[in-house]
Amino acid sequence: MSINVYVPRDSAAIALGANDVAAGVFSEAERRGIQVNIVRNGSRGMFWLEPLVEVETEQGRVAYGPVDPDDVAGLFDAGFLEDGVKAFEHPLAQGLTDEIPYLKKQERLTFARVGITDPVSLDDYLAHEGYAGLKRAVGMSSEEIVQEVLDSGLRGRGGAAFPTGIKWKTVAGAKASQKYIVCNADEGDSGTFSDRMVMEDDPFVLIEGMTIAALAVGATQGYIYVRSEYPHAIAALNEAIATANKHGYLGDNVLGSGKAFSLEVRMGAGAYICGEETALLESLEGKRGVVRAKPPLPALEGLFGKPTVINNVISLATVPIVLARGAAFYKNYGVGRSHGTLPFQLAGNVRYGGLVEKAFGLTLRQLLEDFGGGTRSGRPIRAVQVGGPLGAYMPQQQLDTPLDYEAFAALGAMVGHGGMVVFDDGVDMAQQARYAMEFCAIESCGKCTPCRIGSTRGVEVIDKIIANDNRPQQVHLLRDLCDTMLNGSLCAMGGLTPYPVLSALNHFPEDFGSPAEKAA
């Protein structure tokens, strides 16, 4: 009888030696005359334990990690295949995977299958509630599908948090001979990796979500715009798309509904600005990635001038569970107007970096301490940047803020894509503010003056502050410059760059000179 051994194929695990571990387990089993079935699953999102090897037992999966190729023989000697429970005392043993507190305390809805299934196995996907949402959607009208998404309270998970159902309703009501579904998979924010994990570790859920969106608005063609730095994601998506086409989940007659939907992957060239939806559309059309002025909205005149739904990976990957279990089920999670769950990503100077899917409402401190375990250095947390390189720096006194779109907005911050980058008390916040301006200067598409010129002048001004060159006047100039960028930029690239700069200036004035410089 063959024993199932799970070794992740996720790129984070591969970077840490997962392929060598998988090969080692297979060759060691063969040498000992033991039959094993190596399943290349996705990552569980506990990156400090990668590569995480799991063994299927009668009690459930038993986890060992982080496993080095040199550890494999010792695991066999400990009897981890004969009965995983007997090997619990091995130094790498983590116990039953489902009982690991980091996982057990989560509410995994969008990530329900990630780390459990073989990502490119359709049978595995179907055995774990896969395509249940689409099967229900094919029996519904366009209006009913849109209403279900509206009722769920699902908001865009890419940063702007715009209600997904309203965007769909606009596209559904538009009159056009052709409509498109576009997935914004250009995940470029620092400290974010949830999109990558979905595409690598559960690609069918994204395909299913986009197909449901197509049925909802009457689109027949879809594109997934993936950044070039994600080769493993691109390979997994293409394999899953081919399988979905072969079995009737994509193509000219989706599940016998008489409706067609084709899906293709398009690779971006690495421009951060192409994460902005209109610049992404320009790139998809074969042009330089430059922001478009709005109106017209992409929902009315998007890709090739046609009505287009543009959603983030997590938004679309959440749709299947909304359709499968109903709007009320999903809406029951979260607080206020922040419904459902969000996969938060812990990175930077944090002890337990990884992915945590939780319902909105827990505090930033709970996330960083209960899941993240504080800083890796053991020093106090000084700041946390939430929402990518254009997100605000949250100081200690704001760590008890609930993770909720409105609560963060009230503080001049944003939840964004859910990425968290942690800094201990050794960080220089003036340098971090400079990094934000420099990042904008490098990545700006250059179309509007406040962003193009403002960010360049911003770097110069902060350099003068750091050098103590007429510091009070330079601080005043920096604030004035941020105000211009915030209110005058064409898109969020220049409009959000002031968030990290002003938050650093307001909460850490000592790094810019004198506490007296703190804003009122």
Can you put this structure into words, describing what you see?
- This protein is α/β, with parallel strands linked by helices and 520 residues long.
- Helix content is 40%, strand content 15%.
- The chain has helices at residues 11-15, 18-32, 72-77, 101-104, 122-127, 132-137, 142-152, 164-173, 194-201, 203-217, 231-246, 277-284, 313-325, 327-331, 364-371, 405-409, 429-443, 449-466, 471-488, 492-496, 498-507; strands at 3-6, 36-39, 53-57, 60-64, 93-96, 180-185, 221-226, 262-267, 308-312, 334-335, 338-339, 341-348, 354-359, 381-386, 393-395, 419-424.
- Strand 3 (53-57) and strand 4 (60-64) form a beta hairpin.
Topology:
Elements: E1 3-6, H1 11-15, H2 18-32, E2 36-39, E3 53-57, E4 60-64, H3 72-77, E5 93-96, H4 101-104, H5 122-127, H6 132-137, H7 142-152, H8 164-173, E6 180-185, H9 194-201, H10 203-217, E7 221-226, H11 231-246, E8 262-267, H12 277-284, E9 308-312, H13 313-325, H14 327-331, E10 334-335, E11 338-339, E12 341-348, E13 354-359, H15 364-371, E14 381-386, E15 393-395, H16 405-409, E16 419-424, H17 429-443, H18 449-466, H19 471-488, H20 492-496, H21 498-507
Parallel strand pairs: 1-2, 6-7, 6-9, 7-8, 12-16
Antiparallel strand pairs: 1-3, 3-4, 4-5, 10-11, 12-13, 14-15, 14-16
Helix pairs in contact: 7-8, 7-10, 9-10, 9-11, 10-13, 17-18, 17-21, 18-19
Strand line-up of the largest beta sheet:
2-1-3-4-5
Question: What's the N-to-C terminus distance?
Answer: 71 Å
SS field, number of helical segments? 21
Low-pLDDT stretches: 516-520
| Rg over alpha carbons | 24 Å
Largest sheet: 5 strands, mixed
The assigned structural class equals: alpha/beta
Amount of beta strand: 15-25%
Shape: globular
Helix coverage percent:
25-40%
Number of strands: 16
Instruction: Provide the residue-averaged pLDDT.
Output: 95
